Amino acid sequence: MHDASSSQAPPTADVTERLGYRLKRTAAALRTAMDRALREYGLTVPQYACLELLDQRPGLSNAELARGTFVTRQSMNVVLRGLQDAGLITRPATTDHGRALPAHLTREGHRRLATARSAVYAIDQRMTDAVPEQRLTQLLADLDRMTAALDK
To answer: What count of other Cβ atoms lies within 10 Å of the Cβ of residue 83?
Structure first.
């Protein structure tokens, strides 16, 4: 049995010094920067993430897209409806194999993604540049280990 008390970080009175708080603050800053950049392209962060996933894996279902973009299936329905109304994706009204309606990028969806991508990648690069190059690999590995520890 693992003794949690021996491996815990010492308690701190200042919550802003906790790892979880710092990760949330970073995630919020990333989201704000992406929201600001994507507004110029008429996209939200979930819409952009959905376009990226569909570019990599055409035909994903609502449930698969929701998992891949970290939103609920209900929220993904709204995202997909907005993308469809904007002419950026197509989905069949019905499908032969169950309830999943596979989504695909339209020509305009590919074009919009390509133009928005450079702005998003520039934000990612700003974040990456803030980490000393010799520590980046370790930081990414640490983030993966933290995710795995919470997925247990």
So the answer is: 26
